[in-house]
Amino acid sequence: MKNKYLISGLALFAILSCKTPLNIAKVQTEKNISISQDLPEDQNFNTIIAPYKQELEGKMNTKISHTSVDLTKSGDDSNLGNLLADYTFEGADDWARKNGIPGGVDGAVINIGGIRTTIAAGDILTRQIYEVMPFENEVMIMKMKGSDMQGLFDYYLKTQKNNPVSHIVIETDHDKITTKLINGKPLDPTKTYYIATSDYLAFGGDNMDYFKKGEMIATGIKLRDLFLEKFIANPEVKVPTDRRLNFKNKKNKTDE
Asked: Which residue from 73, 147, 169, 224 lies 20 to 30 Å from 237 (Cα-Cα)?
């Protein structure tokens, strides 16, 4: 079926922008133009964009790393989720130490829904990182009171969702939190924590409202750019194997 778009720009512009009484008699509407797949290609246009298209495709198909195993997003401790959470931690930690936070960041949280696909074993190409992270999300650092960080653990207890974390350990059993560690130490309500995350989550996305209690520090780092940088720096991916999320007696699966 042909898709038709009504082009009447002159009339619409006159109606919306005119500040004086509109004289309808003087308004001229443009001819309707039907746009469909049957229209012939503009060869001049194709010739102009061909070199740019070829260059872009070359960059997108460039090998940047390699993985010996499938990188997936399934399970409470998905290997791709944990890997990207670690990359988020490392990028934010490096930025923090260079920008007035001597101790760096204490942990990282990203959302599994923001990881849009998986990476099969073999060579990793640039385009695959764009497919994994197609959004323009930015790395944020949340300055949090220790007492407010309890909200993070309560969130995981309630949702038991496999949103990846780095340098954070959460274990639950039925309706109780049995372990809550940040950077290898028990949660300290009197301590100030710096947690790396995305701007989406920093604003309370995915119902992470506890982040709204913190102070937001923008890094200017795009998550996708950071992931590209990290894969390039690691020509052979080392998959994290440590346990971070452990929901014992889990009743409802919420993996994405």
From this structure: 169
